[in-house]
Amino acid sequence: MRQIAVGILGVLLLALAGLAQAQDKLGAGDAIRVTVHQQPDLTTDARVSERGTIAMPLVGEVKVLGLSPQQAAAHIATGLKQGKFLKNPQVNVAVTTLRSSQVSVLGHVARPGRYPLDDTSVQLSEVIAAAGGITAAGAQQVTVLRGGKEQRVDVFKPFALKPGDTIHVDRTPVVYIYGEVTRAGAYPIVPDMTVMHAIAAGGGITPRGSERRLKLRRPGPDGKLVEKDAHLRDIVKPDDVIFVKEALF
After folding, report:
1. Which of 116-120, 121-125, 152-156, 177-181 is predicted least confidently?
2. What is the pTM of this model?
3. Which structural domains are found in the chain, ordered by start?
């Protein structure tokens, strides 16, 4: 039984070592310090480029992406030895900033910036909360940029983030209501919102206004506003401007 227990423990230790090594890989944006024993002139502070390399004195550009600090140190030592710069170089690589294990939060949050991922199961809602939450002008659906591709994500639904993700909290879509309404201004758009719903959000039409004299201004393909007659059951779109005119008599 003792041999079985020792065997199981050994397997667990190997698995944990493998997991730690997988989480210790260098990524683009990480800042590292390279030191060479008894060679202070070779001490280098570098940041891993988007190509996954650093610039090292004597050996030039060295690829370290995906390597652990220990593997990167061995790789640099090999370059120094093969170039016949040092006979038996002792190299150490230390991570000073683990930027590749961070995400960026931009847009309508209280504290935009970069936030660390403590593990691989950090949820979008947790990072948004760490950034102070979405401001009054922000939308509940955000844009997540991952690997050059964008996707729309609801903040309140489970969504695990990955290192390097960029979260952009967009402005909430609004419709503008002016003219003969009780409270003119901008109002958030809800799904299937009609002109009638928008006017109701603004407190309704004043006694001087007419629901038969509605105008809708909407940006055209060229960005210029196009005005047309509006009807109460028309579906509104982001940045629509509804104007309620006075009744003729």
Report:
1. 116-120
2. 0.54
3. 23-97 (3.30.1950.10), 100-169 (3.10.560.10), 174-246 (3.10.560.10)
Beta strand segments in the chain, E: 31-36, 44-47, 53-56, 60-63, 91-97, 102-107, 113-116, 141-146, 149-154, 166-169, 174-179, 185-188, 209-219, 225-229, 241-246
**Nearest to residue 178, comparing CAs of 202, 207, 201, 157?**
202
- SS3 assignment, position 8: helix
Q: 141-163: b or e for each residue (b if 16 or more CB lie within 10 Å)?
A: ebbbeeeeeeeebebeeebebeb
Q: And the tokens for 133?
A: 């939450």
E strand map for 11-59: 31-36, 44-47, 53-56
60 phi-psi bin (left φ>0, alpha ψ -120 to 50, beta other): left
Q: How many CB atoms lie within 10 A of CB 209?
A: 19
CB 199 within 8 A of CB 242: yes
Chain Cα centroid distance, residue 22: 23
Q: What percent of the chain has pLDDT over 90?
A: 65
Q: Note the pLDDT of residue 118.
A: 65
The one-character DSSP state at 202 is T
Does residue 23 surpass a pLDDT of 50?
no
Q: Check residue 97 and give its pLDDT.
A: 75
Q: What residues have CB less than 8 Å from 28, skipping those under 6 apart?
A: 48, 49, 50, 52, 65, 100, 164
Q: In this model, does residue 248 exceed pLDDT 50? A: yes
